[in-house]
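Side project, low priority. Logging it here so it doesn't get lost.
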Amino acid sequence: MAEGRLKQERAVRTRQAIIFAAAEVFDEFGYHGASMREIMKRAGITLGAVYFHFPNKEALAIAVMNSQPETIMPKLTSAGLQRLVDLTLVWSHQLQVDKILRAAVRLAVEQAGFGMRDSDSYEEWRQIMEDCLTEARERGELLESVDTHKIAEFVVGACTGMQLYSDLVARRKDLPRRTVNMWELLIPSIATEYGRKAVKVSQRRAAALTR
């Protein structure tokens, strides 16, 4: 039993090493420029081990795309509307420093160019955000007229476009400011008076959450 557990732990570590190496390569070269051999070298394992966990490059790209929440959610301790705001604040900072998140976002945005149309990463974010908004309503932070599904869809789309714009003009260095601006515009139209007073939005908070 102990031996089986050790094998399972090794397999998990190997898979994580492959995903991290793949993220580095995808981030540097994009999908078309990435090779399984280069990923193998970065991971420090055999090519056979890479193919054992991922049958092809597309499967590996999907795994990287779907790993986004793992780079952000563990940093959050807040609830309700603040949790949703904090999620985007952490995201705005981590996109500048986290290779897995950066590669995942690049792949998700560029995937149509290499023949993929996988919306799972977007839909997962939409569901996570919708859950935050549902909790916000239960806490009295959200106006009853607000459609949580529509707002969640809007925030996912807004963040997707915002990071592209920020990357083009400032290599994402101004993304925290843009994210704060988004919430300063959005919160007054969706939050109750209690919610508006309770939620904290600032670039300083974004930096503090990621320390």
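Brief comment: The mean pLDDT is 93.
Revisit when time allows.
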